[in-house]
Design brief:
Layout lengths: L7 E3 L10 E3 L2 E5 L4 H13 L8 E5 L2 E5 L4 E2 L15 H4 L1 H18 L21 E3 L8 E4 L2 E5 L6 E3 L1 H12 L5 H6 L8 H12 L7 H15 L7 H28 L1
Antiparallel strand pairs: 1-2, 2-3, 3-5, 4-5, 6-8, 7-10, 8-9
Helix pairs in contact: 3-6, 4-7, 6-8, 7-8
Length: 265
């Protein structure tokens, strides 16, 4: 195995990207065919003053150089499909939940006037259609930088692409509320188990969704979109099957929980 250059600190691999290192105040990540579209989006976010994304410093051969966002990332190295994503106590708080929703709203607002010239996105590459904006595409605690329990920034923008913002918000709700069956909710670290309908309401209210009930059909759309993306994951047939079973189980649970979630909104 090649030893990283002196001063390089390996960072945990993302769910789809490895070979990430920190060098001082910068992060070096491998690029792909989708990177020019990501870089255009990051430059736009910097230009409009969005604080929650790393800045693109340079692009070298096969490597992008980004600013490093100081803080704690709520990654769970033991996560796998069908298991709850373990969250530190600070990321489970209602204050953290509100801060994430506000950060997502800031991102969506910063994206509304973005009209990309490059649309070679990693997943379903296309220009934004009616009602779509370019979004992060993989919102979750594993891609969130927290400072003292407050969501400060978002990392790993490789999945950014045009989406309906309410669908993007709903996908984030699955991860941050989190909307999972009781057995997996225990895996995340909650004890006692929280009122998920209440947490969903807190989340959409902090985002500022005018009609809270818009999120309900979007929850199904977000899961179906996630199942569609499994074909792009670096997994074998057995891994793909496990991921699809995970999405199917979430949809079945959603159907059983829908009345309680709707009543809580």
């Amino acid at each position: 195995m090649t030893k990283p250059p002196d001063g390089d600190v390996p960072l945990p691999a993302g769910r789809m990207t490895g070979g990430i290192v920190r060098r001082g105040g910068e992060v070096r990540r491998p690029t792909g065919p989708w990177s020019p579209a990501v870089h255009e989006y990051l430059r736009h976010l910097e230009g409009v003053g969005f604080r929650g994304a790393p800045r693109l410093v340079a692009v070298e051969e096969g490597v992008e150089v980004l600013t490093y966002l100081e803080g704690e990332v709520a990654a769970d190295p033991g996560w796998e499909p069908g298991r709850g994503h373990r969250l530190p106590a600070a990321a489970r708080s209602e204050g953290a939940l509100r801060s994430v929703a506000r950060l997502i709203r800031e991102l969506h607002d910063a994206s509304r006037d973005f009209h990309p010239a490059v649309t070679s996105y990693r997943f379903h590459p296309h220009p934004p259609g009616p009602g779509e904006i370019v979004c992060h595409g993989d919102l979750g605690p594993w891609n969130t930088v927290y400072r003292q329990g407050v969501a400060y920034g978002l990392i790993d923008w490789d999945a950014c692409r045009p989406m309906n913002p309410v669908t993007d918000l709903a996908g984030a709700a699955w991860a941050y509320v989190p909307l999972v069956p009781p057995s997996r909710l225990r895996d995340t670290g909650f004890d006692p188990l929280p009122d998920l309908a209440r947490r969903l309401r807190i989340f959409v209210d902090a985002y500022g969704l005018e009609d809270r009930r818009q999120v309900l059909p979007a929850l199904k759309r977000a899961q179906l979109m996630g199942a569609e993306l499994v074909k792009h994951w670096p997994v074998d047939a057995a891994g793909a099957a496990a991921s699809l079973r995970h999405h199917a189980a979430d949809l079945e649970w959603l159907q059983s929980a829908m009345t309680d979630l709707a009543d809580g909104l």
